[in-house]
Amino acid sequence: MKMQLRVLNKARKYLLIFLIxxxxxxxxxxxxxxxxxxxxxxxxxxxxxxxxxxxPLENLKVTRELPKNVxxxxxxxxxxxxxxxxxxxxxxxxxxxENFSNNLHTTDQQGFTKELILTGFKKECSFDYIIxxxxxxxxxxxxxxxxxxxxxxxxxxxxKFNIVNRFVVFPQYSELYYRAxxxxxxxxxxxxxxxxxxxxxxxxxxxxxRSGDRFSWINWKASAKRNxxxxxxxxxxxxxxxxxxxxxTQNELFESIVSFTASFLHTVLKKGIQVGxxxxxxxxxxxxxxxxxxxxxxxxxxxxxxxxxxxxxxEMVLEKDLRFIQQNVSYILxxxxxSKNLVEKASFIKNREGSFTMFVIKAESMVVSESExxxxxxxxxxxxxTIIVREGNFNAAFTGGDLR
Length: 404
What we know:
This protein has 404 residues and is α/β, with parallel strands linked by helices. It is built from 9 helices and 19 strands.
């Protein structure tokens, strides 16, 4: 079918050319005012259509501009399309049609895909349109199609320009009122949840060799004097490194999970704390513990594209994937559901690593059930701090949560 349309478009040029002598012969043999009037009145339109049929559309210079490539959820996106002619022949109109990617089409932006511009003798023309309130994600505008034609609609020609524009809509995030996480001990008092690492650049003493000590820690001079293996004793430094696990189970609060995770990462990284991320989506993406703005942009880009396509329960992730985290860090789990099995897995990690905190996201009107309150009490008693965070009130995560 497409091949037949191409042949018909090419044949149309020659049909228009042959239409002039046919009308001339008709007026010549028919004679009279009417036939000659018909010939002279149709002649300008036919000549214009013939000229348009040979118009070099491939010589048009077409650009599409976006003010930036990164947006936040809710930001309006202004797109500017400019067309420059390199041929003097006036064009009555340009009909420009945008070719969006599939995920952009699903956002009900059909009203912005076409634009009719009456150009005339203008050498350059442009138009802009606004795409409002896109959800988070990565989007592409692949190409655009330009059509030209005459005022009577006798002739039409089109061409497709492959101009690819990519932009990313990041999830909504904000800076939270952050303070160092604490745990409840059995007596009800609070103790800071810090981990300690050895500063191997500063030796503060010596001690007997123990199994597991590094070979480089051996103090050979002291070992020779005492005739037994002695190792250096190092000063211990606090470590505030965090490792965040985000639950990607499909539910109506998933966007809130993404937004809270982005806000949490933004806050702790801005305070100089190093953080890693694990998401239990289909690919099970993991990011090492790093710091800085560049690391945050990398994590934010991942959160912009992530989908709720969880294929395994979060408990399985805690059991298998965290074995590969070698550093002594505080674990943060962000989820929407709490279960007995989850509390047990978190307790095991807490006893092994020393720190585990769960943020459970709930809707503003959602009531915490008695079974959930019981599980939260059990988790806190085992040293796993569990906090209910209400949708739209993320700052309460660091002031004790909301057990309504």
